[in-house]
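Fold it.
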Amino acid sequence: MYDSVIFDHDGVLTTLVDISLLHDATRTAFEELGVSDPTSDHVETMAIHVSPDDVHTVAGAYDLDPETLFRTRDEIASSYQIDAITAGRKAPYDDFDAIRRIDAPMGIVSSNQQATIDFVLDHLNVGDLFGTAYGREPSMTSLHRKKPEPYYLEQAMSDLGVESPLFVGDSDSDIAAAEAAGVDSAFIRRDHRADHTPTPDPTHEVAGLNDLLALDGVPVTGDATIVDDEEAR
């Protein structure tokens, strides 16, 4: 029996933003730092899946301090996503309320910014569902700690006081982080992962959050009713 369930956030609990939004946020970050014409390759590099080497390479091309570049990029990306959340362009999946039936502590471990995660939970008024919620701090240090590293997952486990969670994610880095932490994983096959073969192999695969409730070992309330998402908010 799992003693908790921990979720990735984007693509699992809430919808993804369009990549163009992250490109726009990255261009704005460059402009704020005095770079009016970054190359499209550098914008792409800094928009998503950023590594420490990426930041150093791009910062060097424009004589920028890497830490300042990354912090500015992260803070502006978060503000753009917060606007998308407020406008309803980033929203909970229709099956979000299924997790209300899970009869165990829950947490979030995301590679998105902490400010973004905090805003989502407050905006949707669902913070009480989760005993802990980790995003990244806007620093280069966080790039060394993010998934597939197990750092934030292990921090969440410590916060919840649990040893055998199920970690639910939609990416290879989620599954790898679970494996590195020595815990089971569930790969959720949302539409954007329809043709993806996860590596490493997850412990489970589910089509959505409702299917999660049927997995052996996930404790659920026997007679709880899944409420309509709009009612819950």
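Strands lie at 4-7, 106-113, 132-136, 165-169, 184-188, 204-206.
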